[in-house]
Each structure stands twice: as C-alpha cells, then as structure tokens.
Amino acid sequence: MEVPCARVAREDGEAVRSALADADLIDDDYEIAVEDGWLYIPVADPDATAALLEGGEIVSRTVSERDQQTTPADLLAFDPTYERLGRAALIDEDDPERARAIADAVLESDLPVETVLNKASKVKGETRVRDWELLAGENTEVVHREYGCEFLLDLAEVYFSPRLATERHRVAKQVSSGERAFDMFAGVGPFVIPFAKRGATCVGVDLNPDAIEYLRENAARNGVEERVTAINEDVREVATEYADWADRLVMNLPHSADEFLEAAVTLAGDDCTLHYYDIQHEDDPFGPGERAIRAAAEPEYDVTVETRHTVRSYAPHELNVCLDVRLER
C-alpha cells in the first residue's frame, strides 16, 4: 500500500527516525523500508513532518504493513479516548469503573506507557493546574519530547498542553540566532527552550514557582541554560527591568492576555514581533485581539498584523487563535 514517507539518506536515518519518534509522527502501522541507500519512514502527518525536517522530502511509497500491535481498543468492547504525554496516558472519565478498565487495557496493550492519569478537575487558579487521579505509575511527573527538545514536568504542579506542539514549532521556526525573546507566561519552557536552541537569548517569566524550577531544569537538559533566564514573578512587575529589550514576545495566556498588553509594549524593542494568543467566537476570532493590541501600542508603534492563524477549535463556536504582529517604533 502506498503511504506518505520521509525519504532520508541512510547515514541520517537514525537521527531522523529518533526526531520523528519524539514528535510522535511515525506511522506505526507500516514498516520502515530501505532501498539504494535511502530510508523510507512512514509518517502519520506529512505536513508536520516536512516542518520538522525543515522542508525534508516527503514521498508516496509502497511499504509493508507491520504486524499489528495490541491496542487498548483490542482489549475493550469500545475504542477509548486518551492522550499520550511521554510514557503517560491521560484520560478524562467520570465513571470510576470505566476509568479503571481503560487504565488496565492501556497497561496490557503494546503502548509504551507506564503511567495512567485520569483528569479529576478542570484547569483552575492563576497557575492553571488541575487535579489528577493516579491510576497507574509512581507519580504525575513525565518526560515529554517535542521536535528535538525534552521537557520534564509534573502535570499536577504545572500547566502543559501537548496539543500545541505544532503551533509552538510554527513559531520557533521564525526565530533567528542572536534574537532577544521574552515569553511572558513561560511555563516549563515549551517556547523558550526551542527558541534558545535556535540561538536566541531568552527570558521566561511565570507566576508558578514549580514551572520556573522545571524551566531551569529543562534549559539544562537541553544544553541552553546559558541563554535562558527564568523569573518567578508577575510579568507586570518585571517589565520595566527589561524595557525596550525584546525582539520577540510570546503572550500565550488566551483568556486574559489583553490585561498584559501594557507590559508587552514596555518590553518591546524598536522592531518587535508579538505572538498574541486569544480565544474568541468564530464570528470574529481575530478582531478583539487586534483592536486591543492597537489600543495599547499605537501611536508609539506602527502595528502590522502579519499572520492571522487559527490554532485549533477550543469549544463550540469558539476558536483558539494567534496573531503574529510586528511592532515598529
């Protein structure tokens, strides 16, 4: 059967295979093929693969189907919904018996999973964390790999969404060596770390002290600690210390980022790119954010919206969006 494959030179095969596996992009239903010095690695998402490989060659190729692994659905009378984060499976079940059955099936399957966690609350509080029920495993700490970066985090202590990996990579690809990048709500570093790996000098600020400790740990894990400053504070209290500093700003606090635009304008240098995240009704998903940015930045800055990007559907009739905005003094 013909499937999309990443075509890579054999000598680069293990590095590329490892990067694709870390990003969960390999299509495990098919075997990797080798021919004439080339590896053909079946991929589940050709566009994301091309982005990860910086325009790497994606071809259609006939490859053999792999002997099927046992999945949780094979062991249950239904197809369960779960999310993978490192070697953890995350589920959202109100029924304790159903949650227990899914956890047992996940562990008995061929998935490389050691921990199963069930959501026990909504995201709450200033630090945006939730409660978890530990159904299997030792604790709520996981190691997540994303586009060549490694993140240690405790899901019970910090906010983290693996669903935004492609969006984070979209932004990281815009970063150049020598830039000064400031993440106003940095968490454990999913923007800061890839920015620093591309040669940027980075500052990450977060109210959550646990997130800042993990940010420092992740900077060290990824060999970029010399380019990362991590600050446990309200960014509005820090902004004047970095006035006119930033070439790039990330504002990923979509429910209330507009409350921090005054600080963003203080941080922005003479020519600054702002990545502003928002959640709005589908009838006008970009307008409120653009109007708020213009009200805060003009006339001190010329404001140019370079990209209006829909990240994902957030709720019925609501969209999570990003505005890539250039601020020129």
Structure in words:
This protein has 329 residues and is of the alpha/beta class. Helices cover 25% and strands 33% of the residues. The chain folds into three domains: 61 residues, Alpha-Beta Plaits (2-Layer Sandwich); 68 residues, GMP Synthetase, Chain A, domain 3 (2-Layer Sandwich), CATH 3.30.300; 168 residues, Vaccinia Virus protein VP39 (Rossmann fold, 3-Layer(aba) Sandwich), CATH 3.40.50. The strands form four sheets. The protein has a seven-stranded mixed beta sheet. A four-stranded antiparallel beta sheet has the order 2-3-1-4. A hairpin with a 2-residue loop joins strand 16 and strand 17. The radius of gyration is 21 Å and the shape is globular. 35% of the residues are buried. The model has no long low-confidence stretch (mean pLDDT 93). It comes from Natrinema pellirubrum (strain DSM 15624 / CIP 106293 / JCM 10476 / NCIMB 786 / 157).
Overall mean pLDDT score?
93
Strand-residue proportion: 25-35%
Report the helical percentage: 25-40%
Please summarize the sheet with the most strands: 7 strands, mixed
Question: Looking at CATH, which topology of the largest domain would you report?
Answer: Rossmann fold
Instruction: Examine the secondary-structure arrangement and name the CATH architecture of the largest domain.
Output: 3-Layer(aba) Sandwich
Report Rg: 21 Å
| Derived structural class | alpha/beta
Which labels suit this protein?
single chain, 3 domains, alpha/beta, 329 residues, Alpha-Beta Plaits, Rossmann fold, S-adenosyl-L-methionine, GMP Synthetase, Chain A, domain 3, tRNA methyltransferase activity, Methyltransferase, SAM-dependent_MTases_sf, globular, 7-stranded mixed sheet
